[in-house]
Amino acid sequence: MVFHWAAAILDFWLASWRGARAWLGRPARVRRLWRALPGDLLGILVMRGCGIARPTREVESGDVTAVLVEDPRVGRWFDTQLMPVTAQTLGRYVFARGRIPADILAHECEHIRQWERFGPFYLAMYFGSSALALLRGREAYWANHFEAAARSRAVRETSKTKTRLKP
Length: 167
Known about the structure:
Layout: H1 2-24, H2 27-49, E1 57-61, E2 64-70, H3 75-78, E3 87-90, E4 93-96, H4 102-118, H5 122-135, H6 145-165
């Protein structure tokens, strides 16, 4: 009897999965939906909340596309933060008060990769990493694993650029 119910549950799961895959289409569509929840939606809300109608530009950086919002009105959002902010990423949206330098863009593009990897769980994991750092007696921002990965990526990207520029 137990095997009968287990088989029925497995059949239901497989049928549901096939139906969901057919409904959603290609895996790229699933990844876009995953990334959009909630990152891109938050990015759009912050952009519009600051009175900005559209992003400044889009930048391809390796395997990610960054949607840049470079506008002094972003300061309205940054002023609500607990610490000074130079740039901030929400989904694919990167916010800054002015033009974003290459090293900061590389850092923020790593956060875009993190959003794409963890989707709706990213914010909870990010704040959890900061909380864990505080519990260990360390600084919440500098000991955050997501920030450490972004700083490391920025160093690698900027050192590649400097190496390429040498004669």
